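lol forgot to send this yesterday, sorry. struct tokens for the thing we talked abt
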């Protein structure tokens, strides 16, 4: 496959493959997260525990004075899949579905807290060994500075073998092309 990357894509690829930046710093520099001004508080070495700060500021505040839900969704979306990519190398994970329950307004900076429990990891490993694929659901959330959970996330991740392609349409007639 001969894909040509534009300059921005090449810069992102350079940072993604560079060893002089920590995982936390790479996430902070990822353009959508950089513009949201996120701060990585903790990424455990094994990626099973992740804490990130999503600041409430003029740009992230909605007319009601609390955090835009879209900011929370944009940060919560890739976290479980990124953790699965590190914990289960050799597989291609992506977010299949995500539900967000806004329980309280995000009236302060928010802390995203993600944790992959050992039991869940073992269950996923068993399913991958048996079926070659897994579709686990992770529960995590955003917390106000006083520790109150304001947003509950349920994120379902599709974990498939690398190179997996789901056919969404019938194959093209190769004789016509």
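and heres what i got for the seq, position by position
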């Amino acid at each position: 496959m001969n894909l040509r990357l534009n300059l921005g894509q090449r810069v992102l690829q350079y940072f993604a493959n560079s060893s002089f930046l920590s995982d936390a710093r790479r996430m902070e520099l990822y353009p959508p997260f950089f513009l949201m001004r996120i701060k990585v508080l903790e990424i455990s070495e094994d990626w099973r525990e992740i804490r990130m700060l999503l600041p409430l500021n003029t740009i992230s505040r909605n007319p009601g004075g609390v955090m835009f839900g879209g900011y929370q969704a944009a940060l919560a979306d890739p976290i479980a899949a990124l953790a699965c990519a590190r914990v289960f190398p050799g597989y291609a994970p992506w977010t299949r579905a995500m539900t967000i329950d806004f329980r309280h307004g995000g009236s302060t900076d928010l802390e995203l807290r993600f944790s992959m429990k050992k039991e869940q990891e073992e269950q996923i490993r068993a399913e991958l060994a048996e079926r070659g694929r897994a579709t686990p659901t992770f529960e995590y959330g955003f917390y106000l500075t006083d520790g109150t959970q304001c947003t509950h996330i349920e994120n379902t991740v599709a974990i498939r073998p690398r190179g997996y392609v789901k056919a969404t349409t019938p194959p093209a007639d190769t004789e016509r092309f």
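The beta strands are 39-43, 49-54, 91-102, 110-115, 137-143, 149-161. anyway ping me if u want another try
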